[in-house]
């Protein structure tokens, strides 16, 4: 990598996105080539990404690693490097074999994953420490600056403030930058596929009715029909909503979950997602467009908000009303009360809902209590991390001097794998003499 010996607005490396993928790349480059001029840009006024929300990390293959981009050996090698840098405290697990044996009898797999959980507040402290270290290494951070476009011929990045010259450019915009990345790829003539999306529900119930979380914080169950559990939160756990789209294309919401660290009071609740992976085939359609359509349909039925329904009502084939969330059987308040009580079956495609409901029934046999009438189903939970760029080498390079990494680029599905994809791009940038 040839250095510019940068002047103002000239950088050896510009990184768009300050989540784990961008941070991983920035640290690797600066630790190995300290004289490199590095600028990290993020449209948010704060460092964003998965580290900020719940900060749950998995350190076992294949969790988070799309097999189209990674081999087991590659992933484990990079995971070792991620772990060496972050020095996580791995959570203890108990009684995993008991749950695994129950699952296997039903044709369900339970993976035993090495995990750590900092909570949303712990994640914010981690980000604060990482950004201070990054600045101390010489990186420049520009938060609240939005990348708009790139000129590949001039190697110039255009933001809402200025034009920036670069030697290498890494785009790591995360899931929220899914559409931005597609726009850049379209203009740059980079081929990609966008035909996979994860769609499902977020489940909320009392911890005593999903007691496995006391033994295994984020249990990874894999069910038939490409359905799985994802992102379990407990102790001090809450369901939240995320806004997607804009006024022009239409606004819609997806639900998500997070939990505070062990320093916060417990609320006795747990939440987790059950997602079905949908792969669209001929005629090849956009997973993003499909997800947007489902999200807007849910917003239409929910009066502009996500929908929630009690299991007791769903089993009876009737919608939930506000009064469904009171009474002796409905013994806890939803942590996202702004959702609209309704009928999820009017919005979710039958094939997806049937797969998720079947998984819930199997899970209730493995961990009895989940299908208590008070359990809440929130819809929709949608994960947009399915861009599949046509890379020109193993380092996630999509064009000369341009690297695409992280969840938005389809190279990862989580914090540790996103960080690993940043390391891999950094290896590509540093492979030539400085």
Give me the secondary-structure topology:
Layout: E1 10-16, H1 20-32, E2 38-42, E3 56-58, H2 72-86, H3 96-105, E4 109-111, E5 115-117, H4 119-136, E6 140-143, E7 147-151, E8 156-159, E9 163-171, H5 178-188, E10 192-193, E11 196-206, E12 220-223, E13 227-233, E14 237-246, E15 250-259, E16 269-279, H6 287-301, E17 307-310, H7 311-315, E18 340-341, H8 350-366, E19 376-383, E20 388-389, E21 397-399, E22 402-404, H9 415-430
Descriptive report:
This is Pyridine nucleotide-disulfide oxidoreductase. The chain is 28% helix and 28% strand. The chain has 434 residues and is an alpha+beta fold. Strand 14 and strand 15 (250-259) form a beta hairpin. Helix 2 packs across helix 9. It folds into two domains: 10-90 and 116-193 and 387-430, FAD/NAD(P)-binding domain (3-Layer(bba) Sandwich); 196-383, no CATH class. The relative contact order is 0.20. Mean pLDDT is 92; it is low at 2-6.
Q: Summed up, what is this model?
A:
This protein is an alpha+beta fold and 434 residues long. The protein has helices at 20-32, 72-86, 96-105, 119-136, 178-188, 287-301, 311-315, 350-366, 415-430; strands spanning 10-16, 38-42, 56-58, 109-111, 115-117, 140-143, 147-151, 156-159, 163-171, 192-193, 196-206, 220-223, 227-233, 237-246, 250-259, 269-279, 307-310, 340-341, 376-383, 388-389, 397-399, 402-404.
